[in-house]
Amino acid sequence: QVQLVESGGGLVQAGDSLRLSCAASGLTFSRYAVGWFRQAPGKEPEFVAAITMTGRSTNYADSVKGRFTITRDNSKNTVYLQLNSLTPEDTAVYYCNARWLVNDYWGQGTQVTVSS
After folding, report:
1. Beta 18-25 vs 78-83: how paired, if at all?
2. Overall average pLDDT of the 95-100 stretch
3. Half-sphere exposure in the Cβ direction for 16 (13 Å, CA)
4. How distant is the alpha carbon of residue 11 from its chain centre?
């Protein structure tokens, strides 16, 4: 049974930082590219960041470039998203997604709330 479990969300103030984790089980994690997405209340889901299976390549949405960093530790089956310089516009539920060929898995999400 494949599971992706996000953690690390919370309530912070503008300018603060958080580190989100996405822990995977039940799959050969090193085969999967992983992305983070978010959905704010009343808005469509949006791409945030992604990392290749080896971690050598990353990609970011323009809105988070320079503030967020995605990394992975395949020995721990975990992907991280470091969120710095948070703003109220970053408030959303953050989801991780693992993909390999036709395999596509999602976590349950973790809430990030940034107060002004």
Report:
1. antiparallel
2. 98
3. 16
4. 16
